[in-house]
Amino acid sequence: MNAETLYFNSLLAMCLGALFAVLFRKNDRMANYIAHCMAIVGSISAVLCAIFVFKDGGVSLSLFEWGRVGLVTARLDPLAAFFLLLVGVIGALASLYAIGYCREFYGKRLWLMAAFFNAFLLTMILVFSVSHVVAFLLAWELMTIFSFALVIHKWEDATVRRAGYIYMVMTHVGTAFIVAAFLVLATAVGSLDFEALGHANLTDPMASIVFLLALIGFGTKAGMIPVHVWLPLAHPAAPSHVSALMSGVMIKSAVYGLSRFLLEFLGVGQAWWGELILVLAIVSCVLGVLYALMENDIKKLLAYSSVENVGIIFLGMGAGVVFMAKGLPLPAALAWGAAWLHTLNHAVFKSLLFLGAGAVVQKTHTNDIEKLGGLIKKMPRTAVAFLVGSAAISALPVLNGFVSEWLTFQALFQLQRAFASIFGKVMGAVLIALLGLTGALAAGCFVKAFGITFLGKARSEKAEAAGEVSPIMSMSMLVLAALCVVIGIFPQTILPIINYVLPVYWGAETAVLFDYQSLGLVVNTGVADGVMGVPAVIGLVLLGLATAVLLSRLSGKSHEQVGDTWTCGIDPTPHMQYTATGFSKPIRTAFMSILQPERHKVVSADTNSYYGRRLEYHLSIRYFLHDKLYRPLNSGIIRGAKFIRRLQSGHLQLYIGYVLAVTVVALIWSSR
Amino acid sequence: MNLLIILLMTTAFFLTRVTNMRTAVGIFLAQSVMIALASIIIGFETGEVHYYLAGLLTVVIKVAFIPYILFKIVKRLKNERETNSLLSPNLSSLAAAGTTVLAYGFIDQALPGVISRDALAAAIALVLIGLQIIMIRRQAVLQIVGLNIMENGLYLLGLSVTNGLPLILELGIFFDMLVAVAVLGILTYRLKISYASTDTTLLRKLKG
């Protein structure tokens, strides 16, 4: 067994999975089980392959000789292996979940979905491993197309088609930028191999152009604001296990691409690159979480929260670029390490949340959390998993989100060393404050998502009729939840992996960056070191709790009575509960200038004005980016097209006139 | 040979003034006869066999077949006249004159001192005048005639370059022409049926 065998084994398993899904298109059960089991096998191979790479060092595999394009290789270095690990872990659990989840799709082109699912995993593995420009772009494009096919699986629905269309347009615009970035680099080097691109030695204006192209291109895939618009549309449209993969892994391909560009191809860059990334990242964080908080569609809420988390990842990367430009390798390593760790953590808890949301949607057939409620009694296992995911994404201690967000904070504190001017120092502090705000808002957002969905009473008959999902589905969710807890309490389980990646770029001294002992984690950067002792804190808290329980037991018998909530003597009905819209009202008021909420209230006048009046209440918020950026852009393009359309008058003589004019011009030109 | 070129240009100028379709087709026929003659004369001068063959093909296709089709169409199109051209006959003659000057200027610039200067210039002028006719006229049949004039110009160009074009190319052009005129003839007739007129400006309605 070595990394090479496992890599090809993984690719083969997924190819077979896709093939079997097509072969068994008449038999949904067979297609479901075989295709998804093959996906699990392939994903586990990918995980093992990554582990072998970490253990034995990177390998470079020649895949095939491709005519004039050159030798296509797959380079499994620690960075690639880290992302392969991501695909593997999330892919395996999402596939396991899919076996249960896809029963819903029997008779609804399940074989097609299973085949595309395998192909999607396969192309993601290729994106993270191939080390050749053309092959990378090809894999990137196929990944987009397969995910598009999965997004529009329920194409009978007009909103799904529209989501697919916007997804396609946005990612293709992004891909155009990526292609441009690669072409500039490749022409400068004269080679299409990734290894060679690192020796480009571009001079400044060119390097900055490549950086901007790559940032826009990959930023679109990541869902960075202002190019995030496809995310909240595509994630709800896709089946849930696909959303989990898309949000958990696919958008991270952008992190991978930017890491390659910023660390290998462009070398040490300008400080303003990092500052630009920081600004975009913090805007993504704050706006993403605000929009998430306003959302009542559970999957849209999760999608906006992905925008926020991409912002946090980009904060780490931006800080890393600044540190590199200022010649501070240890803080740079810390910042990048934080970004990668958050990439992994976000993949774990976001896919967990999407899987949980999928379970809820499957049982209640609605995405609208205003119609849910009380599900904790009907779906206890899903509720536990979702609660763990919610707490993790809110960066609560003892869960994994806390670890990486804490490391990001540590990196941002170091920014004070990098910025010399007082303006820079203040801005660095503002970043930290805004990231704190983001964390608080995220907590509010997930209190809303969990509370309204799972607590209280059912707000509709659909929610009343819900039941627990199949054990196979809840198992994969609970495994992910366990991962959240393990990484949260013992970050030392995952930090060694980050430590394999860091020395590649910043040398051996990064080995001492994270000092992890059984009781806690120490960050050594020379100045302002951080210490985090989650296990120690947990031990103390448990000790305190145990003492409290013991004391209460000793003090005498407690008296317990179970009953409905007291509502002044009326039977409590679901309508008396806090609504999701009501819950987010204080935030809406506080951030009125950004969100610009619009209320529309209709009171029907025909009933008695003292009793039982009917109220209709509509609330919408305005997305100022749509108004200020996309709509003008859109109408500008349409106006331009209309202007050009005047050429097409439909007048036959005019067309001949064009030909005549061109001929005459060509004649004059040639006889010059 | 020079006489033929002068006659060709004269007929082309005449065509810019014609509004009657039957006359236009007649002029095209006369022009084709001249082209065939030119082909045979050059064949006689150089002694190359393929010029005779090309001349024979011209006679069969451009003197006999295409005019036959066009006459047949014109006969079916009663009450069709060219009205409201883009340019009045005087102006279009003037445009043709300008084109001729342009063609001579072009030849003098591009190939100064070439032997067959007049023939080359006339060929280019014919191509451009044909294009002008297509552009200025509204009647489909007149536009077809314009297309044929262009083709005559091209053929003349082929004749006047040294040794002429290879026969296979000329065969290709002839076949092209034949198909084009056949298809255009059918389309013109369909136009008459659909719109009760062969005025091509009506095709504007097709625009979405």
TrEMBL record, chain B:
Keyword terms: Cell membrane, Membrane, Transmembrane, Transmembrane helix
Tagged with keyword Transmembrane: yes
Keyword Cell membrane set for record: yes
Entry's localization field: Cell membrane
Main localization (coarse): membrane
Recorded topology in the membrane: Multi-pass membrane protein
Transmembrane regions listed in the UniProt entry: 21-44, 50-74, 86-107, 119-136, 141-161, 167-187
GO CC term, one of those recorded: plasma membrane
Matching InterPro entries: HyfE-like
Entry protein name: Hydrogenase-4 component E
UniProt organism field: bioreactor metagenome
